[in-house]
Design a protein that fits this description.
mainly beta; six-stranded antiparallel sheet; five-stranded antiparallel sheet; 1 helix; about 50% strand
Length: about 200
């Protein structure tokens, strides 16, 4: 487990720093569920959007160590208050980052958020260069819509809509290599979440 790995299971939630914002937000304060991650996450909230910046959330194996396997985990939760007079559809989740790897390595990014689990895999035998203005082979982006439907309050016989659970996300990064001469680095830079009401 590397130095950016999440804390022990059951660690108390820690508030994530959030700069002041002028647009009213449906989001409550985001909370990291691992103390080491809480120190490096910055969040912004405006309207139905929540943005998290991770400087850094990383797994890396390089020639300075003999380790052949590493992982890192970040979890957070964010309560939200939606307009119960409107139907709620779900969340648009976008995660962005970078990958650099030689052929003798593999890496994976697992995202569990908005009621779905998605995985990006970077297999053995594939090389990825760091991104630059002329080369985007190292750019990582995953976007998906997680359905979490609730009708408007008026659609329920008793006029009470079932509550929405707080938004929860866990990001797991892993890396592996065949020998200590191979190198790999996977970074997650940011995650944005848009809650959709109609």
């Amino acid at each position: 487990m590397d130095e950016h790995a999440g804390g022990e299971i059951g660690s108390p939630p820690q508030e994530i720093a959030s700069p002041p914002h002028e647009v009213p937000s449906i989001w409550g304060g985001a909370q990291a569920l691992a103390p080491s991650v809480a120190r490096v996450i910055v969040s912004t909230q405006a309207g139905n959007g929540l943005a998290l910046i991770f400087p850094p959330l990383t797994v890396e194996l390089n020639t300075n160590t003999q380790t052949l396997l590493t992982s890192s985990v970040a979890s957070f939760t964010a309560p939200l208050e939606t307009d119960e007079g409107k139907p709620f559809l779900g969340y648009l989740v976008t995660v962005e980052g970078q990958i650099f790897k030689t052929a003798g390595t593999r890496a994976a990014l697992l995202i569990d958020a908005a009621g779905q689990t998605k995985t990006l895999e970077f297999p053995f035998g594939e090389e990825r260069a760091a991104s630059s203005p002329s080369n985007d082979t190292g750019f990582v982006r995953l976007e998906y819509f997680g359905v979490e439907r609730r009708g408007a309050r008026s659609q329920y016989a008793d006029g009470r809509r079932p509550p929405l659970p707080p938004f929860h996300a866990t990001l797991t990064l892993t890396a592996q290599r065949t020998d200590a001469q191979e190198v790999v680095r996977l970074d997650v830079d940011s995650m944005s979440v848009e809650a959709f009401e109609v």
